[in-house]
Amino acid sequence: MNSKEIVQPNLFPFPFPVHLVFACLALFFFIILYLRDRKTYQLIFTFAMPLSLVIWITNNRTFFYFVGIVELALIIIALVTAILDKIKKKTQASETETTGENTEAADSAIADNAVITEETDSPTEE
Description:
With 126 residues, this protein is mainly alpha-helical. It has helices at residues 16-37, 40-51, 61-121. The protein contains three helices and no strands.
């Protein structure tokens, strides 16, 4: 058997060039999304995707698992921030609706007062 035919086991399933292309595409994708939407989770993923490239620095399993834990933590943080942003958006929308209803009621009251004022200010025939 030839030594060139033996497949060397690797910790990561992708070869480096494929991983590099994937990380670069993800980086540009999340930068564009963040510039458009300004959502926190997009910014987190902007840094998390290229961070996975650091596993190519060494073949140390401990480092590999450390990077995996950091990536998992970033994904969880991104998930939590996405949920919190959604809750915050719903809260702001409900406050806007409540404020809008109060504004409409106030506008209606002002309009009613204006009509009453016009009726009392109009000259009466004697």
